[in-house]
């Protein structure tokens, strides 16, 4: 690649459209251009990086025994109707009609199609196991496309699927893909953490995410000193032991003037009520009752009340995951207008000694509790009357609920569920996801094979994704400084960047010759052979483009020397021209 | 690739969905599967063939100096609005809206986006010329998807575009791509003819198509002994010389009872009227007036009458090309009801000595003529009265028209426009198209650069397409027999196909060892290592899959021999195992 002809223009200024560093630098260094909201065009340098990532993925998929196929992105509605994802995907799905008014979609993922393809070709346990994958354009109509390639609306994924007769087979297939992912990310030079994940809308059971730790990540994950790691959606709260109900004081309604929020309730209690254990009152002693609306993909709206300790908030992502495919909203004025029994600031499970919340209560609103609200635990709760609370309201004695749901925020210092210590919070970008789908899709689409006894059995599946175009951004985000990109050598658009820095013909001739010699060794070269461009501009572009090894053919040539420039360390040293080739690692 | 694990099931029977041989065989041999109307899934073998074609294209694009980029398939409406193609594409365009109700499309071709990208990055004549290309999924909502990969709705194209300041530059860029296409098709082993083409909906001037001759082709093209070749849409009719008007007999209206079609008119004339030159009357002496409706992309309907010699028909494709972007329909009953002056079977340009057809005529319907209707030519035409015709109606004396349009059928035996002899007709499949777009897109989208004098000049463009997935079908169509496919070696999914035909372990071990030795020489191998599958079935699959070189490890092994089987010639000969490798070409 010669900069005199390469389709590339570097930008001195940060483009307005970009917020995160990877996005800014990929635009400035001429790797991508914006084509629309969440839509990007790949320029030659970007395409070279993407191709290197795809090559590593293909090699490791082959090592894991997975075979490559390729599906259309434009797909008919029917298979997605059979699994209900046509509806469940909601606004995230691009839907369209053809000239005959038949429904189609742009596939966000291909579980249905892979399932149908295996059903189409295979029919016996002898045909299995099989693992298939594709590297293909995917589409999601994101509400907020952001950060360039990190969250686009058209993006490239590697999606693999395994098909087995037995659960053990699925586990082995899952492990093979998981191992392949570790090899892929290691080879690409991507820092990653494997965390337990919530299976979410995809259904299924065992599920892990590969996150690349990054302050700009959209995923929050936790880690413990003992090695526990999980996506925040997947953290199970450590449940305190149940408490004996016997001997606890009776619940009593107390007038709490103006105590319409937790802070004021705690202040009132501190000022007016002595705790039996002598400890000070805190928000953790109050039961906060949060009114939420679940909106189903079909648009059905259901109110639920969630009771949790008053010192915690609901975590929106955990709630989304728990109630998927429903969307979760805070109840609005209209909801409250329909339920005058809900007195804001004073909501609680019980009114006048009778259940108000819960399907068995007078409101008929489903009531769910945080797992910390254990049997025998006593709470200050709203009394469903203005300026009144109930003290010593005991779970299992005075109130009950329709179920437990684990959607309160996870905090730094919370205990890891496996006893491995206190959790620390961090942010990461999801770069891969492996999980055991089980038989959900095979059942929905009728993928069965004959077993050894000639009996039809349903196949069990795994699903394994890597965000290919997202990885370009993740690598750029993790490998840059204020001057530009610094690619790991495995994904650099070229192995060596040769700068002809000077005006004399001999500089250009030497640089050409050196570049040709490097190419002859099987390496790729970007050669800055631009005439009438100053060495300063050339060095700036070299730093921006980010090839890790740079050779400068310039002033030193009079002494028979060229400069080797390590883009990452910044170290620059003169070496004899003759030994430049050997000095490259 | 081992058949014991390869994701492949060959089919014994022709699938119902397939009509043409390439489609049948690609399905039966496990290269592709149907995913929806005009939508195909690529299985491992098909993907291998497609990858080989793409590799050849990439190498030759690089040789031609074109640089690879990659655009989204999902694109915003605006650029296509600026060139009016959002509307002009009519029903062929897949349109959709995102969650914000913003209009998008699935791109059928990318002229607009390439133009905008170059505008985005470049600004000076010094930046040009540049040629860019992509290999990418395209979408067209075909009215009749057919013949598998030959006319699909999602398909892969290589589309390249050149950008130049001068017309000479464009010509050179065009030639470079044209040369690259010749190299590509030659390397792939595709038979092709380069024909003059109509630029059609794409605008622009010089345009040639690469057609692969095939009886199942949708394109008709002509060839002359002297080397002329053109798509039937692009053939210019050889215009006979004008005839002196002076001295010709006056036009006269003659009652022609029941002569409501050309055949009857000729019969009537033969029975009742003596020709001045003594020759017999033929349909070529009558002027047939065809009433057609042009429907604009916006839905506007305009009637036109086309007059041509009565021995010719309108060619639908030539008419479509001439009137693009309008669609061409035959006038319907409703159209005739609005124009009672048009008497079916007796339509003509003149009534009672005054013009009826034409914008100047009483009907105000545009009247167009075939180029053979030259000045001074005399015709029998309908008199716009039931059962009456006008004889000796002379063009230029008795009637005129609003223009000439060359849309009559081209016939075997017609003269080539360049005087190179009689035309022969043949059918072909379009595999490539090169043309000089000129400044149409650059003007519509404002692509200008500063010239040497600092003046803004509009860039001139070329557009160059190859149907990548279609080529797979074209190659299959041209390379098969009744037993299966026979790939040219450049695109075969593997270089060698090794069959282990027997039950003894030594057969499998030898086949394995031989396959490994071939792979070690850098060639790819498909190894049929299936246990419990009969040699007959294995040979059948080998013929179906169509790798050109087959090695059979079987009975001959006792004599230390294997069979080399040439799939194309069918020749099968025993060679010593030791020399099998050298015997492969």
How does the SSE layout of this entry go?
The structure is a homodimer of 585-residue chains.
Chain A: H1 21-28, E1 32-36, E2 39-42, H2 44-63, E3 67-68, E4 74-76, H3 78-82, H4 85-88, E5 94-97, E6 103-106, H5 111-121, E7 130-139, E8 154-164, H6 167-188, E9 193-196, E10 207-213, E11 219-223, E12 229-231, E13 252-255, H7 262-272, E14 287-295, E15 301-309, H8 316-323, E16 327-330, H9 333-338, E17 350-351, E18 354-355, E19 366-369, E20 378-385, E21 388-394, E22 403-404, E23 424-438, H10 440-445, E24 448-450, E25 456-458, E26 460-467, H11 468-478, E27 480-481, E28 484-485, E29 496-500, H12 505-520, E30 525-528, H13 535-545, E31 549-553, E32 561-566, E33 572-576, H14 580-583
Parallel strand pairs in A: 3-7, 15-19, 19-22, 29-30, 29-31
Antiparallel strand pairs in A: 1-2, 4-6, 5-6, 7-8, 8-26, 9-10, 10-23, 11-12, 11-23, 13-21, 14-15, 14-16, 17-18, 20-21, 23-26, 24-25, 27-28, 31-32, 32-33
Helix pairs in contact in A: 1-11, 2-6, 2-11
In short:
2 copies of one chain form a homodimer. Chain A is an alpha+beta fold. Chain A is 24% helix and 29% strand.
Short descriptors:
3 domains, 585 residues, 24% helix, homodimer, five-stranded mixed beta sheet, globular, alpha+beta, YbaK protein, nine-stranded mixed beta sheet, 29% strand, Rossmann fold, BirA Bifunctional Protein, domain 2
